[in-house]
Amino acid sequence: MTTHTTTDATTYTARPIDPAVLKDLRTTDDADRPMVPFADEEGGAPLRCCLRRSEPGERIALVSYAPLRRWAAGTGVDPGAYDEQGPVFIHADDCPGPDLRGHPFPGAHRTVRRYSPEGRILGGRLVGNPEALDGAFDEAFADPEVALVHVRAVEYGCFLYEVRRA
Fold first, then answer.
1. What integer is the mean pLDDT of 59-79?
2. Residue 108 and residue 155 in contact, taking contact as beta carbons nearer than 8 Å
3. Arithmetic mean of pLDDT, 37-62
4. For residue 60, with 0-12 CB atoms within 10 Å meaning exposed, 13-18 middle and 19 or more buried, which class applies?
5. What pTM was estimated for this model as a whole?
6. How far apart (Å, rounded) are the C-alpha atoms in residues 159 and 33?
7. Quick one: which of 101, 93, 90 has its CA closest to 46?
8. Do residues 51 and 105 make contact, with C-beta atoms less than 8 angstroms apart?
9. Rounded CA gap, 10 and 103, in Å?
10. Of 3, 18, 48, 114, which alpha carbon lies 20 to 30 A from 66's?
11. How confident is the model at residue 106 (pLDDT cuts 50, 70, 90)?
């Protein structure tokens, strides 16, 4: 997990995909397809297992992942129509997980999408400046109804990571 503390000492934790979930995804993904590993010749794929970009030659896979469904199953709620799955890159084999300072995948526009404890979208915010992410988290978690947020890539809409209060 990557932890960020804002200037007012509020702490938020960026969470990679859980190791137990990664084990499942490496067998059958959330769309019931088997994992198909490949060598990433160029590098640069955003790996959701360790919250960093891949290096050229690493063995990775593109799998279908349903982050809200997985969270909802652990909390006993039904996300209903908000349940969605999409493509994420992961290492094809076990990895040590994140070891980062700063925000994962910096340098691009992001969307911070807020969810209620019932798994419903409460709103979102476009973050054009990566330095503004902490402010977006402060804004989201100032609302006591926000249970978690998803950070998504604007260019593709893909899930990047989940953030919760630490």
1. 95
2. yes
3. 97
4. buried
5. 0.90
6. 19
7. 90
8. yes
9. 15
10. 3
11. confident
